[in-house]
Structures are given as C-alpha cells and as structure tokens.
Amino acid sequence: MVNCTGSNPVPGTNFNQHLLIMETYTVLAISTSHMTKKDNDVLHSITHRHPHGLDHPFANMVMNRDTGYFMKLYDEADLNDLTLHPKVIDEGMRFSPALQKVIMYAHSEGHRMIEFDCDAPEYPELFETFNW
Questions:
Q1: Which domain holds residue 65?
Q2: Would the N or C end of the chain have less CB density within 10 A of its end CB?
Q3: How far is C-alpha 36 from the chain's CA centre?
Q4: pLDDT over 70 for what percent of the chain?
Q5: What confidence tens digit (pLDDT) does each residue in 14-67 have?
Q6: In this structure, is residue 55 part of a structural domain?
Q7: How many Å apart are CA 32 and CA 39, to the nearest integer?
Q8: 107 vs 113: CA distance, rounded Å
C-alpha cells in the first residue's frame, strides 16, 4: 500500500489527484471449495503453461498462488465467450458449471478479480461446495 502522507512519492505531480484517475476494481475472495478438483487441475495447467493451458482463453487471466489463484475478469462479452460457449475451449480444459457460476456471479456484482483461496470464506447458500 502506498503511504500518501509526508513527501510526494512522484516528484512534480499531485499524487492524490492521480489516485482519482487510476483504474481500481474490487476483488471477490472465495474458498477454493467452490471449484471442483478438475477445475483446480485446469487452472494449474493454465498457470504452469502446460501444453493444453497455453491456448486456453484464460491463460493471461489467472495467476497461481500457494493457497489458490487470482483470476482477472474482463468485459462481459469476453466472459460470455469463455464460459458460456464451451466450444471455444478443448473439452478437457473447460471449467465446471459450478466454477462458471462463480465467475459470472462475481462479474455481475461488479468484481473484476476473484481470489480463490483455501482459507477464504465459503458461501454454500450461493454456490455448490466440493470436498477434494
């Protein structure tokens, strides 16, 4: 986090004014239990650039972490192509309907990133859970 008190971190500029025009977005933190084991395997393949993951439409949208993944969400048209029209993705690399539901929900609520983490909250009233 940037400390905005004290000296200006960008000499010659009004740093606080630039904060008003920077792109920001919200992140939904959610448990990895809301994805299937296969979803985890697909995300692992994507983030580790295994042969099938290289061509995956989400290849530049997912980052691996020790406890899960970050997934950047772009505009709705891209999400519809990637999750609702599975013909664009090899069958072995498709996300489960449960994960697709999480992605579409996050986007519809205005989030532009999802943090899937094994220690994040579960939302069983909204999403299916998996014990893997």
A1: 37-132
A2: N
A3: 15
A4: 65
A5: 666 656 677 788 999 999 999 999 999 989 988 886 655 556 667 778 899 999
A6: yes
A7: 10
A8: 8
